[in-house]
Amino acid sequence: MDSSRPIRCIGVSTGGGDAPGLNAVIRTVTLCAIQRGWEVYGIKRGLEGLFDTREILPLTRDAVRGIGHLSGTILGTTNRGNPFAYPVPKGDGTFDKVDRSDELVKNFHRLGLDALVSIGGDGSLTIANQLGEKGIPVVGVPKTIDNDLSGTVLTFGFDTAVRAATEAIDSLHATAEAHERVFVVEVMGRYAGWIALHAGIAGGADAILIPEIPFQIENVCRKIERRQLAGRRFSIVVVAEGAQVGGERVIKAEADESRTEVRLGGIAEVLAREIEAQTGKETRSVVLGHLQRGHRPTPTDRLIAMRFGAAAVRTVADRQFGVMVALDPPQVLTVPLSEAIRMKTVPLDSDIVVTAREMGICLGDD
Ligand code: F6P
After folding, report:
1. Residue 334 lies in a domain
2. CATH no. for residue 216?
3. pLDDT(179) > 70
4. Same domain, yes or no, for 62 and 51?
5. N or C: which end of the chain has fewer CB within 10 A?
6. pLDDT (0 to 100) of residue 274
7. pLDDT tens digit string along 326-357?
8. Across all residues in the chain, what is the average pLDDT?
């Protein structure tokens, strides 16, 4: 991009799984850009809108009015259709993977966009990084309920997901105690245990199983039996969807032509059967699933989202591209996209893990 040319017009996109706070970022980016006299265009359904430019939404003050508190995204999103390996049907039920990135870059420039604010998790930001290498001036905004992105202490969406999961665990306590049952509650988080650990501790779980800590089911059963002997005839086990049973993850659906990631899910049911068999205690499983993505963003998530949105526009104005805005309290700063897309799992020596152990919560490894 010609660095002497003033910024006049920016695009904004939301990619990957939705996370509470996306609309707050869209609204903030729009308002801050308009304040600077820029035009803003929303690219619909991830970056799909750049293949069909009729799917570009002018973002005016009116277009973003009243959306800051809503979950979802007014732009739509997708975790399919990577432009560098775009699935094109061959007509026989199979697909070719075609690199359509040149077409996308051409359309971006044809629309007169000077920069792209890409709001996404590791998948979308990896694509954003590759587009940056092809000449699109891009600034990333870290979004995911999983909180698994490096470079930022928090992603927006996480706090709301933790609240949703904690409230669910709170509710299950009553019925678990009433029926003297064990409940295994499965939460999202992909290959990281952030949601499980935070919601499990906050919700008073008796055992928390996360991908970062290999566990033995026998250890969980012993914990349940110890509680039983002590007169506490119910237990709550929180398990992250990406935790491994016998060294393997439980998968709901394999990756396919258009989606590179497997869909995790089902570990709670597997564990519930095993716990019931080993302890003789009636055990139920509950999968919280997408309910964790649908709650209204908490004030914490809204504020992080808004600060990220404002920082993204500031970063574009500074012509600093190929970076992601990031929270490093009390600052919002920028980190190279290439570093940010590395996965951030729960450090085993972190205070949150130590806290769980010191409270006597079983993490499955002893
Ligand atoms: O990355 C966010 C997330 O909600 C993960 O926690 C979960 O594994 C995945 O997305 C679910 O994806 P989908 O919405 O495609 O089922």
Report:
1. no
2. 3.40.50.460
3. yes
4. yes
5. C
6. 98
7. 999 999 999 999 999 999 999 999 999 999 99
8. 96
